Amino acid sequence: MRRSIKAVLAVLIVSLALAACGAGEPSTAEPGTDAEQTTQSTLQTEQQAAQPDEAAESAQQAAAEPSDDAEPASKPDTEQQEALQPQSETSGQESPPADGDGNVELTWAPALNGVVFEQPTEMAVLADGSVLIAEQRGSISRFRISGDETQQFGVLDLTDQVTFSGERGLLSVALHPDLDAQPFIFVYYSPSDAALTRLSRFRLTADHAAADPGSELVMLEIPQPYANHNGGAVRFGPDGMLYLGIGDGGAANDPQGHGQNRETLLGTIIRIDVSRSSASEPYRIPTDNPFLGVSGVRPEIWAYGLRNPWRMAFDSVTGDLYVADVGQDRWEEVAVVRAGENHGWNVYEGNECFRSQDACDQLTDHTRPIAVIPHPDGCSITGGMVYRGTEIPELVGHYVFADYCSFRLWTIDPAGQLTERIPVDVSIIAFATDQAGEIYALTPRGPILQLIAAR
């Protein structure tokens, strides 16, 4: 039976296994208007200030980048106008449900009493059932649900420190998976004082209700030659290591060749150990990283040859890392990324040669994606999650993802079969999941949406 809104909210009363879980794009129809008008929620603090004018942001971005490489403001990386494994621990747990056959019709239901958000980039659920929402402008808020009442509390406000424009802003957050021992939140953002992206750690209060803004430990800074392709997904793997997806540095065509240059962190997924971070040593290199000790290669690199891995997520059962890599002007792609792999950019785009046939012939270690979406069926892929919930048994084991500007939703089953699902009818910035494995979608302006079966 279709879940009621109360059931939707009840699912959120579980602590997060959000090892998941990339901010705006062309103008689209905005969801949530009815929910905004009719919700009975009462906010104890005001909603965020109105979003800066997107046209002005687009103009700013175009001025900062080559004129033929401008991308629309909004979700990091729309290319419509392009030119610019270790397994998770399962000991002592019940056996996971068998993979579903995918034979189900899907729809959406608003969560959090239909509260409307502006450019949310991440959602996480705390052990007490409260929900963290990060918004691209630089704020992180906590929401507590009690019946029809929604209470809002500030967690961390970086709006004065963040450049919020186009593909820049507060791009990703992740809670440490062991908050009792490591009460930290990790934030990846575009600082307003430099042309770079920054990974920082903040200490949470004893009840995990807020972060101390004065506790920032800058862990890593990555120079960004352009304002787009910042990537930005901070995830903890089942191995306890922190993974970060980083774009190729921007513009079009990867003009500086970062994708195949392992002397830079641009165009890579990195893997670092943050278990004993300090000001003198913010992170360590795991001893089993694939390029540790290799001359001329950054030891943080886990995989490379990526263009703009906006969102990625670990499968909570298999430990596989699913990455959605935004394409240039022909192909969007989904990859399962493993240690040491080269995913081909900018020699390949999807499965096609991008640079030249000679360059493709010479690239003998290219790892092909598990799925590709041609333009115009897609133009800016939004990576999703592998469904491991119980409310839609037919979908168990299927990877769910979308495209920001074509409003389409797909699934990939465990055998690799790609299936187009319901039209989304709205842009999806990011996906999230709760500990129960249920999937949620974040949209540019509107309520958080839960994926449910249309029964």
How would you briefly describe this protein structure?
This protein has helices at residues 5-11, 33-38, 54-64, 357-362; strands at residues 106-110, 117-118, 120-125, 131-135, 139-146, 149-157, 170-175, 184-189, 196-203, 217-223, 233-236, 242-245, 268-272, 301-304, 309-314, 321-325, 331-337, 348-349, 352-353, 371-374, 381-386, 399-403, 409-412, 418-420, 430-433, 439-442, 445-446, 449-453. It is mainly β and 455 residues long. It starts with a helix and ends with a strand.
Provide the fold topology.
Blueprint: H1 5-11, H2 33-38, H3 54-64, E1 106-110, E2 117-118, E3 120-125, E4 131-135, E5 139-146, E6 149-157, E7 170-175, E8 184-189, E9 196-203, E10 217-223, E11 233-236, E12 242-245, E13 268-272, E14 301-304, E15 309-314, E16 321-325, E17 331-337, E18 348-349, E19 352-353, H4 357-362, E20 371-374, E21 381-386, E22 399-403, E23 409-412, E24 418-420, E25 430-433, E26 439-442, E27 445-446, E28 449-453
Biggest sheet character: 4 strands, antiparallel
CATH fold category name: Neuraminidase
Distance between the termini: 5 Å
Mean pLDDT: 83
**CATH architecture verdict:** 6 Propeller
Domain count: the total is: 1
- Taken from the alpha-carbon principal axes, the silhouette is globular
- Overall helicity: under 10%
What topology, given as strand order, has the largest sheet?
1-28-26-25
Count of helical stretches: 4
Poorly predicted spans = 1-74, 78-92
Q: What's the CATH first level?
A: Mainly Beta
Strand content: 25-35%
Structural class: mainly beta
Backbone CA Rg = 20 Å
In total, the number of strands is 28
CATH superfamily: TolB, C-terminal domain
